[in-house]
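#struct-help
A.M.: can someone run this one for me? Single chain, 430 residues.
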Amino acid sequence: MTYSGRNKFEIARFSSDDENHINKKLPKELLLRILSYLDVVSLCRCAQVSKLWNILALDGSNWQRIDLFDFQRDVEGPVIENISHRCGGFLRQLSLRGCESIADGSIKTLAQSCPNIEDLNLNKCKKLTDVSCQALGRKCSKLQKINLDSCPSITDISLKALSDGCPLLTHVNVSWCQSITENGVEALARGCPKLKSFICRGCKNVNDKAVSCLATYCPDLEVLNVQGCDSLTDESVSRLGGALRRLCVSGCARLSDAALGALAARCPDLVTLELAQCAQLTDAGFQALARSCRMLERMDLEECVLITDATLVHLAMGCPRLEKLTLSHCELITDYGIKQLSLSPCAAEHLSVLGLDNCPLVTDGALEHLISCHNLQLIELYDCQMVTRNAIRKLRSHLPRVRVHAYFAPATPPAAARPRPRYCRCCNII
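D.P.: on it. C-alpha cells below:
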C-alpha cells in the first residue's frame, strides 16, 4: 500500500478520533518521513499504537530496505508475498539471508510486485531453483546486486536469465552453486558488462575459460573470488585487468610464479590478495609482486610452503600499507623474516593482524621484534612450540591491546609416589 489518495482519506478519517498529541502537531507527511528511518521491528511496533499509526507504519514508502535475517526461522512464503504487495515499487533492497523456507512461488510474487528492486540477498535460501532467477530476469531489470550463495539448485540457466534481463548487475555471488559452469559465467559476462564483483567460491566447474570471459567482457571488475576453483591456471589469471582490487585464488594449487608476475604487471592497485594453499608459489613471484603492488593491505599466504624469509623482506620493502598478513603453515619462515617485517614502514604504522600458526622455526625472538609494531591487535601462534608464555607476557606488557591466540599443552602430571596396582582390590580379595 502506498501513500495514495486512498491513504489520505483513511488518515483523515482516523486523525479526528486519535488523541495522540504528536498527530495533531505534525503533518502526516513529516510523520511518514520520521517512520522511514525505523527498522522492521520498530515499524511493526508503531503499527500497533493506533489506527492512524498502523496506516503510516505499513505504508510502502517506509519499507524500501528490509532485512529479515533476525526472523529467518519464522519467514515463510505468505510473509514475503504480503511484503511484496505492500511495498510494490518502493522496495529497493531485501535480505532473506538464511530464510530456508522461501520457495520459488514467493520470489515470483516478489518479482511481479516489486520491479524496482536493486539489491536482493538470497543466501542459503536452499529451496530456490532457476525458476526464481527466470522471474527476476523477466521483471526486475533494475537489479544491481544478487546473492545466491549456497542455493544448490541454481544452475547456468539462472545466470543466463539474469544476463538477459538484468544488464545493470554489478555484484553477483553464486558461491557453492556447484552446477555453475563456464557457460553460465560467459553468458553473465557478455550480458552484464558493468559487473564489478563476481564471487563463486567452491564452484569446481568454473575454469580458465570462465575467468577469461570475465576479464574480457567486464573491464570494471574489481572483486573476483574463485576460491576452490582448482582447475584454474596461470593462463586466465594473467588476463585480469587493471581495475582489479580484491582477488582470492585460495585453493587454486596449479598457479605458479607466472601468475604473480602477471598480476604485478596488470593489476598494480591490488588491495587484497588471498593465495592460501597455492603451494607452487616461491620467493621469486612475491619479489615481482612487491615491486609493483604497493597498495596491498591484506595478504593470505597460508600453506604457501615454499616461501622463505626472502618473501617477507620483499613485502617489507615494497608494501608499506600492509595491515593483515597470514603466514600459517609457512614452515620456512624464521625470526629473521619477522625482524625484517617489524622494521618496515607497514609494521610501524599499519600492521594489525599477523598469523603465524604452525611456523615451527618462529621463537621468542620474533615476539621481541614485534614489540615495535604499535598497531598490532592480533597475533596467532597456535603450534609455535618454540614460543613461550614469558615471551607472550612481555609482548603484552609493551602492547596491552594485543590479543594473542596460542595454545600450550598442559604439564605432564608427576609420577605417583607408589606404583599403581596392576589389579583392583576385588581381585586382591578374591
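A.M.: thanks! The longest strand covers residues 65-67.
D.P.: also worth noting: The CA atoms of residues 286 and 311 lie 6 Å apart.
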